[in-house]
Fold these 4 entries.
Entry 1:
Amino acid sequence: MEMLEVKDIYKSYGTVEILKGVSFTMKKDETKVIIGPSGTGKSTLLRCINLLSPPDKGQIWLNGEEATNPKSNINKIREKIGFVFQDFNLFNHLTALRNVSIGLEKVKGIEKEEAQQRSLEELRRVGLEAQAHQYPAQLSGGQKQRVGIARALAMDPDIILFDEPTSALDPELIGDVLDVMRGLCGKVAMLVVTHEMGFARNVADEIIFMEGGVIVEQGSPKEMFTNAKMARTKEFLGKIGVLYGEEGA
């Protein structure tokens, strides 16, 4: 059984059609990377998958349960979907530790002490144990993003969605975040929207190229980078390779 199944998803905002029938599947612990030009619906797709913006049409299945069924318990399903945002979305008035533990307490009903213990373990996993009692204002962008990843991991999700996790970071901080993500490969399913071509090439099980609200092409990194079938895919990868450096981070 596929862990995630996205079936014929459509989404419009007002009269603007953003997604025009997107379908793909993911297996347990797989890493897929979505690439494509800005404004093509990549972030909207992630928001549809965790139902922050429910799709207008189509279905999403997580572990055999239809998330888009009106009778489904959205909050229960969302517990199984981690989300790492482009702009961190941390609570500025809470320490790094509290940012991670609050969801365990409020959503999963875990006792404060156990939640803090678990949160400390996740901060250790992303290399931030020493910053546990610092507030977001005291952290670099890369550290904030790693807190965001620890927060997602603490909930023990089936899949984590990453929405351009490095695009708000200074170049020298990107590597730390990508290293953490590399370390998660094969341990949790990851669906990553990114421009980091080196990461996509070295880490993805599959790359999905989207443009204009549809999937233009998908395949292994080797296929996509050396033998893309569609002229548009080749053109995009050629341009982005020049822009971001062929190997990337």
Entry 2:
Amino acid sequence: MEQVVVPDDFPSILSGTGALKRLQRLAQVTVYKEKALSQDELIQRLQGAKVVINIRAYSKFDATALRGCPDLKMIAVLGVGTDNIDLAAASQLGIKVTNTPGYSAVAVAEHTLALMLGAARRVTEHENELRAGRWIRLPMTQLHGKTLGIIGFGDIGRQVASLARGIGMRVWAWTLHPSSHRAKESGVQFVELDQLLSQSDVISINIRASERTRGLISRQALEKIKPSCILVNTARASIVDTQAMIDALRTGRLAAAGLDVFDQEPLPANDPILSLPNAVLSPHNSGMTPEAMEKGNEMVVENVIAFLQGRLINLVND
């Protein structure tokens, strides 16, 4: 039987599931339920594996790691983002990389809306005041009639647009691959990035992390937005200049932020983001509903089974 390794099921979502049991009937599967303490330990876990199921983005499959695993032929990512994998090196070494597009789109979109509403209604600030024994009513933002600018318009972006239109928002989108058909189908207007940044009341980042999108929301980009704007990021922290965002939140250049992703995860106890009263935070768990996790587990296992049977589905590299 072929060797399949899951080096990073921590926190665990695949262990003990029906999807894993299905795969175990076809391959010898080793699951690690603790985070590797070093890159060397990660490489050691992968020795002898033909297939790796990558669950957590903290596992970095750089060129060194890939070259250190001579038996490796496939990395099956449970998720959409592949920014933790050197895709060029994988292609050069003949390693196929797959992902699970759309598996958590509904869950992440709902979470995006929750962060958006939480920031607009200043839920965290109100709760903190109440818990401190103070009855303070802070000014809030009504989202009905406001403009939402979505950066990225894949599965998640389309779901966010649908939810936002449901509460009466006008929706704009910017994407690397605009489509008049998608715009008409979704009822969304595609605009240039500068217009989205300067005129949106809420900006939601739902684009895939890549070298093209790294630092897309730079200090210069943040200077273009309205001081009343709310920024929501459920994609990847690398897309935003974090220090510039913190400065904008501190000075009132940005009204509020809803954040599910951070430069360092878990978020350190002394991280300056934690001291910002106008930031609504969650621990990178926007896609972790039972429904999404079950769908993701099934999709990643199906990708592996297809590969073992000589087929390729959901391939992301050459």
Entry 3:
Amino acid sequence: MNNILITGGAGFIGSNLALNLLERGYNVTVLDNLSPQIHGNNPELSPLYCNIKGKLNFIRGSVTNRSDWQRALVNIEIIVHLAAETGTGQSMYEVAKYTEVNIQGTALLFDILANEQHRVKKIVVASSRAIYGEGKYKCSDHGIVFPISRRNEDMAMGDFNVKCPFCGVNVELLATTEDSKIHPTSIYGFTKQAQEEMSMIAGRSLQLPIVSFRYQNVYGPGQSLSNPYTGILSIFSTRIMNGNEIAIFEDGKESRDFVYIDDVVDATILGIEKEEANFESFNVGTGEHTDVVTVAKTLISKYNSSVELKITGNYRLGDIRDNYADLSKIKKLGFEPKICFKEGISRFVDWVNHQSITEDKYALSIEEMKKKGLYK
């Protein structure tokens, strides 16, 4: 099976995956709408698109358009479905858009596969750590718990800790396993849950193997520096390059599992090539978590910048406090993250230093969330 379709293949993960698969001898087709939010106002000149231009079969189109799907699926044997609207904050007020692209776009794919002739033999679906919501914790009295969303009342008082859903005490963070409770706290997380579960249900019905990857926070060279809604390394870097202060949400101790793009590509290829991955979901991360203040201070230092770092106490509704992946399951598939955060952030900074300074749109995104009552 050598004919592979990557939806969203001109994006950050997709373009890196496409180039790797070309080197491995795959015939790659990409379906991508070249969204201005990711690729800028002249998307056909964006670095991400230019990296793949002329090297593969490119179709400019949308996963929300049936005819675009039909054009893209000709002779395809494997699909890697990455195309999605991403970003927790934006999803909370662009609900219809996120639902249309992430859920309805996937529904269109399976409607075609169920009712029309095709050669598809396997589908890899990009899920997200966002489906776990607050993830897995340990309460001193109640053991392992899966807390609900943090209360606005607590956060307004400066208490950003995650609480036990039974007794209300602060709980201890644990690595999130794939069998953890699925209860997203954002519209984005909900759409990724629906996308993953729809794919598994439809795949079993059609006897079409599905592999789902629950990516943690992916970063690395090539990441969009102009999109103010996803990727704090990119957001902070753009702020620093423009000489603007970095405003940290909450108390700065919120943390994420930052996984380097090369490791994400390696994991995804395992899902493509290994039959034992079929009908399984896997976390993709490093198994470690880094707090946001550490990220900001590291970037400021590496850019030799003197921009101000300000911990604001503000917060966004829908954000989780912490999350990091338990990798026990995917390691059995042969995955081992190779790039630690220290090395990865150095590579990322080296790349950013060779890019043109991008317009900083972060303040506009915050104003938009304030208008919607989502930024406190």
Entry 4:
Amino acid sequence: MHPDTNLVIQIQSFDQKITAFEKEIATLPKHIAAIEKTLDSHNRKLEADKAALSANQKERKVKEVEIQTHEQKISKLKDQMLGAKTNEQYRAFQNEIDFIQKEIRKAEDRILELMSESEPLDANVKKAEAALKEEKVHVEQEKSVARDRTAQDQKWLDDVRGQRKEALGRLSPKTVQAYERIRKKHSGIVISEVVDGRCSACQIALRPQYFQQLRRGEELMFCENCGRFLFYNPPKSFENGIAS
């Protein structure tokens, strides 16, 4: 095997690790954004529940004020009834009092309805507040884990990039150019093992003379079909448990 072959294999391994780290680093902010979006959705739901409860309470206050106003009117009308001089005046006052009392009963009925509606609204708000509090803690924990993981991945990424740079420096410029060209063409799969006389990447058989040349390991060689670097590991024979 040519001495540079192991370097090419090593550099390919570095590139695969770099790709994995870069992918994970890019994914983590998306993960944070997703959980924050969920939290924002729950926040909006809580605000809607609070708004509904607040509207319920405001309407109850309005109805209570209406009842007080109606009762004051009835009190005045009753005082005025005492001064009625004819039956028609008396009946007019009475009719107006009856009408206002009906309005009071309507307001009281509506208050009862609002009180009945407020119980589940209040329960929803309390439940949502408790759930949101727990979720905020969970989200902060998730964000902390994601930030720590990103920092660790970035450290590893920098380390691997440094090792890759050092390994590339041990190859000739011509080999480096060939490596980068093949990596771009074949999505990072730069070197392929020859198994049973075939390139394991494209499965095309090598010419016998070319295969023999590869086995001698005197130079870096490329697959004549797919263009990848080639390497060959000769099979080991074992006799009596001892490698020969």
